[in-house]
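Example record

The entry below shows one chain as it appears in the dataset: sequence first, then C-alpha cells.
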Amino acid sequence: MPADRLARLVEIVERSALDGGRRADMAERLRASQDTAVSVGRAVGRAFGVEDSAEVRSRATELLGSVVSALESGSGEGATWSAGEHRVDVPETGSLRERADALVCGLGDAVSGREGEGRALASLCRSVQLAVLLDEEEEEGPTPGSYAEEESGW
C-alpha cells in the first residue's frame, strides 16, 4: 500500500482507545505486513527481471496456476512427468529439492512456451516462501488479523 495510507492506518491505530500494548502490536503488525509485501514485490522483480507490477504478478499467478494444474493432472513414469501434451524429464538423481526444482522449471517452461519462465517461477516461490516463513516466525499468539481471537483472550 502507499506509504501515506500505511501512515494513516498506523495513526488511527495509535490514537485508538485500545490499551497501549495492543496499539503497539497492531501498528507493528501493519508495518510488518507492509514489509512483507515490499519483499514479495522485490522478489517478483528479481525473479522475472522486470519491475513489479499488476501485469507481472498476474502473469506469475497464471503461470503458477498452470504449473499446479499440470502437477495435479499429470503423472510420472520413470524420469518423465506427463501432463496433457507436456512432457518433462526429471533427473533421477540429486536431492529432492533439485528434482522438484527441475520439475517445476520444466513444467513452467512447457506451459508458458517460454524458456526461463519455470526458473523464474521457482525462484519467486522460494523467495515468497522464505518471506512468509520469516514473517510467521515473528508472530506469536493469535492468527494475524484475527481480532476475534485476540478479543477472546486466545
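Notes for this example: The chain has a mean pLDDT of 85. The chain has six helices and three strands.
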